[in-house]
Amino acid sequence: MLGKITKDFGHFIYETEFEYLPKEVVDTTKKLILDTIGVGLAGRKAAGCDKALRVFESFGGKGEATLLGLNKKIPSPAAAFINSMFCHALDFDDTLDEGATHTFINTLPSVLAVAERVGKISGKELLTALVVGSEICCRLALSMTTVRKWVRTATCGSFGAAAASSKILGLNRDKAKNALGIVYSQTAGNLQCLYDGGLTKRMQPAFSARAGVLSALLAEEGITGAREVFEGKHGFFNMYEEGNYIREKCIEGLGEKYDMLNISIKPYPCCRMTHSSIYTALKLKQKYNIMFNDIEKVEITVSKVVKDAVGRNFEVRENPQVDAQFSIPYTVTCALKNGELFIEHFEKTYVCSPEWGILCDKVQVFENERLNPKDINVSEVSIYLKNGNVLTESTDIIKGHPLNPLTWEEVVTKFSKCAKHSKEAVDDAKVEAIVNKIMNLEDIDSIEQLTSLLNIN
Question: Same domain, yes or no, for 71 and 136?
Fold first, then answer.
């Protein structure tokens, strides 16, 4: 008998229609599309992106799908990979904080690639596919009960990409389930490249986006995959999570309650696990008008997962941008010194300035054993001033979380700033055109009306 999660996901993929989607879900999806495209345009010039693109271009193939910020098209699985890499390269993309997962970098590049391959896909169809794929990705991540061992952006994201691609292709229930089974054979994503600062960190969701497209296309042709994808003896939860999951979180209220409404939009272009510390430090700086030269030291307490992932002493290794993105000492020091944190503060030449090695030593990160070890929202920052005063502030909900959200105006501002950071800066008229098209996406009858605006040069 087919496992209930696989069965229910298959029905959800097949049965969901735009007319069933709550307005709040549609509006959130549009906001996340705009945010993801913006960070993709900015991320296009990040380290490793051009090199990866050269590899895929060397394979040749039919020009099916648009590359963000480029006047060229490549085969749809390849386009899903490259656009996902662009969107994740700056670590400025959305997160499901409670699930330690990025979502739209898997689903949006996949959906855009398949939609252009198919042709004449409407805005409503695009929005529906994104909701389906992103909701499945979120539910899988939220169902897990252990501190992560795999990169869930990639593992859960592969299923989200396959589901979204299946919806665009109009696969029936059986073929949609097969797409999930096929992508399970490609599901992966490790933490080691994060700890080692490897450029593959920004490629892991790209592998998943490409796998999602490929799996749906194979399923469309009748290829079959594992049937007991999630709950089988060797299914996803037993193999990847040692059986530690809550089934109800995957399927309860599916199609009625939407966990994707809990996705956060980032205000800073770095690992989400650094954000609470940055936000808290900036609150202190603004509240007390702290001058950086008056600081003696900074002590920060966070959860175990945050301390282990981003709390080590800052050092520049072979990929300075990645090292900076995954360091509380660097991001907090930079924020306290500049009063803000944006893309330019993670450029290689900026990060490699000799002063950072000395300045970052002022920041020490400690584990708060009383916190849930998976918590990434809570932090406490104490700034010790040279005059002997100690200023302390804490944060329970990070900026950008739905309980402390970025407004539409703030998301549009972020998109505009990101577009200006693209390899070829996007002019104001095109920024306005892209924003307007996405805000009214349900009114367009062909997604090419949007993708044509993304050919920047």
Answer: yes
Question: In b/e form, how buried is each residue of 133-161, taking b as 16+ CB within 10 angstroms?
Answer: bbbbbbbbbbbbeeebebbbbbbbbbbbb
Nearest to 419, CA basis, from 407, 436, 434: 434
pTM of the predicted model as reported, rounded to 2 decimal places: 0.92
Beta bridge partner(s), residue 73: 66
How far from 344 is each of 147, 310, 422, CA to CA, in Å? 32, 20, 12
402 falls within a domain: no
Q: Which of 100, 44, 141 is nearest to 310 (CA)?
A: 100
Each residue of 333-358: pLDDT tens digit?
999 999 999 999 999 999 998 888 88
Q: How confident is the model at residue 199 (pLDDT cuts 50, 70, 90)?
A: confident
Calculate the CA 302 to chain-centre distance: 22
pLDDT band at 456 (very low <50, low <70, confident <90, very high): confident
Q: Is 62 exposed, middle or buried (0-12, 13-18, 19+ CB in 10 A)?
A: exposed
Residue 315, domain CATH: 3.30.1330.120
The predicted structure's pLDDT at residue 424? 81
pLDDT of 148 above 80:
no
305 lies in a domain? yes
Contact 345, 338 (CB under 8 A): yes
**CA–CA separation, 77 vs 183, rounded Å?**
13
78: amino acid identity, one letter? A
Q: What is the CATH number of the domain that holds 54?
A: 1.10.4100.10
Q: What is d(CA 69, CA 86) in angstroms, rounded to the nearest whole number? A: 10
Q: Got the DSSP string for 269-323?
A: SS-GGGHHHHHHHHHHHHHHT--GGGEEEEEEEE-HHHHHHH-SPP---S-HHHH
Same domain, yes or no: 241 and 373: no
In whole angstroms, give the CA distance from residue 183 to residue 170: 17
